[in-house]
Design goal:
With 348 residues, this protein is of the alpha/beta class. Helix content is 32%, strand content 19%. The structure holds phosphoenolpyruvate and manganese (II) ion.
Length: 348
């Protein structure tokens, strides 16, 4: 249930409503918008009588939210959430480009990729140090050494860092180095990890699970929001379907659906959703056309030698082409790419 306060409700009236919610054994989550404050009533599924709140002064309306996700819902937060990553805004009119290798492999590979993606207009460097691999015999990542290399790349380039944590135990070390914590598809429903990452004090990128419905995905976002983290970014990365020609099937539908259901920004990962570099640029264009708030792209200087996901990694030159193309598509749908001051490529 949400309680919509009148636009001129006083702080004392809001406090009274919060105290009443808590007195009934629920938690109150405040969303203070520009126009008005909305109080979310969060708790178990016991029915609450709206009559408890309707007569209170300063209350405009009481609505029950039938969806199972509440804090993630548009009803609770009608305006788009813009996630602030130390001054870099995700979810506003400007689209963010995150790019880098699937895995951090060594210093040269990471720094070469970081400089290349920066030159083409990326503002966030991706790279896994803890890798969720389907086989225990595949490269598992460099661990903390990989995180140190990411920090070095940030220092050299000014790019921000996104990297994955796979378990609650890894969250502190990842949070020590990262600007955004990535939660991978395989862990979308690892609820202890969601809580731990949600509490780390950093923005979280939540990838959609391989077989997850949009509702399940938003319920996982609800876990992050429910521990008090409002800086959540969703990432569509393709779902399993009967089609085996591509690694996954890009659910382009999910972008406008999520934007209708939720206020959270949503970006697209066309690398994992296609699994083949040949299709990454076309699907990236489609995602931006559909309204995605950004892209996360795998780039490797030498994909044939990559220790993970080489088949879907773009060479830096192709990544530069992709950025040029999605810049045009963004303009066609009334948006822009974030143009960091270091790119010389901003067309007139
Ligand atoms: C990745 O980003 O390299 C990754 C493992 O992604 P996903 O969790 O979407 O498979
Ligand atoms: Mn990968």
């Amino acid at each position: 249930m949400i309680i919509i306060m009148k636009h001129d409700a006083t702080q004392a009236q809001i406090d009274y409503v919060v105290a009443k919610v808590e007195g009934l054994g629920y938690e109150a989550h405040l969303s203070a918008g520009q126009e008005r404050t909305i109080v979310g009533v969060i708790g178990d599924d016991r029915p609450i009588d709206p009559g408890n709140f309707q007569p209170i002064q300063g209350v405009e309306n009481v609505l029950s939210i039938l969806k199972p996700f509440k804090l993630a819902s548009r009803e609770m937060h009608p305006m788009d959430t813009v996630v602030d990553v130390d001054g870099l805004l995700i979810g506003g009119n400007e689209l963010v480009i995150m790019a880098g290798p699937c895995s951090v492999e060594n210093r040269d590979q990471l720094l070469e990729t970081a400089h290349a993606v920066k030159e083409s207009g990326a503002t966030i460097l991706r790279g896994g140090a803890f890798k969720p691999r389907s086989s225990p015999y595949s490269f598992q990542g460099l661990g903390e050494e990989g995180l140190e290399l990411l920090a070095e790349a940030r220092h050299e380039t000014g790019l921000k860092i996104i990297t994955e944590a796979m378990s609650p135990e890894q969250v502190p070390v990842v949070a020590k180095y990262a600007d955004i914590i990535q939660l991978g598809a395989r862990n979308m429903q690892n609820y202890e990890l969601l809580r731990a990452a949600g509490r780390a004090g950093l923005p979280v990128l939540l990838k959609r699970g391989l077989m997850a419905t949009i509702e399940e995905w938003l319920m996982s976002a609800e876990y992050l929001l429910s521990v008090g983290n409002e800086r959540i970014i969703l990432c569509e990365r393709g779902i399993r379907s009967f089609e085996s020609y591509t690694r996954n099937t890009t659910d382009i539908n999910a972008i406008p659906v999520v934007q209708e259901l939720s206020h959270l920004p949503v970006i697209l990962d066309p690398s994992h959703s296609t699994g083949k570099w040949e299709y990454v640029t076309a699907v990236a264009r489609a995602g931006v056309a559909a309204g995605a708030d950004g892209l996360i792209i795998e780039v490797h200087p030498n994909p044939e030698e990559a220790l993970s996901d080489g088949a879907q990694s773009l060479r830096p030159e192709r990544f530069a082409e992709l950025v040029g193309q999605v810049r045009e598509v963004a303009r066609a749908v009334g948006r822009e790419l974030i143009e960091p001051e270091w790119t010389s490529k901003t067309p007139a």
